[in-house]
Amino acid sequence: MMVMRWRRKEPDREFTSFRLDCEERVRALRLPPGELTIQSLLDHLGERFGRPIHLVPLALPPGSPDGMWVSAEERDFIAFEERLAPIHQRQVILHEIGHFVCDHEAAPVMTPEATRLLLPSLDPELVQRVLGREHAHSPAEREAEFIGSLLGRQIGSWTTQRVWEVPPEAAELAARLSALERPARERDER
Ligand SMILES: [Zn+2]
């Protein structure tokens, strides 16, 4: 019995410290008081990190991750599957925002050729990382998911309409991503 109790306590303590770390990270964002919209959240984060973030709704090919964070030199894109149910879209977007907030590292997953294909209007050298949404239970994935859920609580209304402005290079990105047979990440991982 003692062993069982001890074993049960350890993960709890671990989760508590994980939760507190995440909450602290969200507090440190100094979000404006009151309810946010997804756009006001993105605007705030963009200003805070000095990197505008654009949402890019896409029809991704089968087998793709349903969300991707594409980090270029001066701005970030969060691409998500536009055919998902709104509630799932919301979860995907918040998850990718979680990665952005945590500044998670992603190994460069794209060859220069793939980058050129994907982002012809962006200098390949400027694309620092592309992070596909995965459901692996890695610490980074757990963190992104939890921070996304914390941020989601602050968002009052959620529109499924495309109220966001898609910059020209993101529209290009959308077209290229849609044309891919498989996500770059999977290809590179072999
Ligand atoms: Zn993820």
UniProtKB/TrEMBL annotation:
Q: Which residues form the IrrE N-terminal-like domain?
A: 57-106
Kindly provide the name given to this protein in its UniProt entry: IrrE N-terminal-like domain-containing protein
Species of the source: Streptomyces netropsis
Q: Which domain of life is it from?
A: Bacteria
Mind telling me which InterPro entries this protein's record contains?
IrrE_HExxH (IPR010359)
One Pfam family here: Peptidase_M78
